Amino acid sequence: MPAPDYQVLTAMLSPALFMTATGSLLFSANNRLARVVDRLRVLTDLSDQLMRGLGNFSHPAERLEHYRGMIRLQQKRGNIILTSITLLYAAFGTFVGSSLGIAVNFLTEHLLPAVPIGLAVLGVVGLLGASIGMLREARLGVRALNRELGFFVGLTVVGDPPSIIK
Fold first, then answer.
1. What angle do CA 75, 76, 82 make, to 5 degrees?
2. pLDDT tens, position by position, 6-30
3. Which residues lie below 8 Å from residue 106, measured CB to CB, with a gap of 6+?
4. Does residue 136 contact residue 80 with C-beta atoms inside 8 Å?
5. Is residue 163 domain-resident?
6. How far is Cα 89 from Cα 91, in angstroms, rounded to an integer?
7. I want to staple 80 with a disulfide (CB 3.0 to 4.6 A). Which of 5, 36, 74, 137 is the partner?
């Protein structure tokens, strides 16, 4: 049977699985945020060109309306991702705190068993909230893609202005 010190060390490593999962989700969320920021920059640049009369665009008024709608959608996506990232960082912190709480609980001769458990539960709740947020953002990403496709398919119909898909 392992010595109690080794059992404590083993228990302190248990939250590492959650920390690894949280780190992977953070990496993914940050990449998605970067893509949204890049898309926003393109949309604002295109909108600026249209408002200044630069370029040779067909249907400039419809395009500007479309770009403004897409900018709002991308802003919403960015806000959801940022909320998810905040939840993920908080979850990561609670998992670290849970690991430390296991050691403190051992050092205080098990006077604080609720601390590491409570922190772990908070971390899992944060992971769940962030996962739900990222699912919402992914659905908005698909909605944005469908709007883009619908708008540009509408541009290909000769003589008809594009229809804006909502």
1. 90
2. 777 777 778 888 999 999 999 999 9
3. 4, 8
4. yes
5. no
6. 5
7. 137
The secondary structure of residue 163, as a DSSP letter, is P
Q: CA 34 to CA 40: how far, in whole Å? A: 10
C-beta separation of 134 from 84 below 8 A: yes
Q: What are the phi and psi torsion angles at 51 (to 5°)?
A: -65, -30
C-alpha 134: how far from chain center:
5
Amino acid identity of 104?
Answer: V
Number of domains in the chain: 1
Structural domain includes residue 166 = no
Let me know if residue 162 belongs to a domain. Answer: no
**How large is the C-alpha radius of gyration of the chain?**
24
Residues 69-112: tens digit of each pLDDT = 999 999 999 999 999 999 999 999 999 999 999 989 988 988 98
Helices (H), 108-158: 114-155
What does the pLDDT look like over 100-151, one tens digit per residue? 999 899 889 889 889 999 999 999 999 999 999 999 999 999 999 999 999 9
The answer for residues whose C-beta is within 8 angstroms of residue 30's C-beta and 6 or more apart is: 85
Which residue range(s) make up the domain with 10?
Answer: 4-155
In a domain, 161, yes or no: no
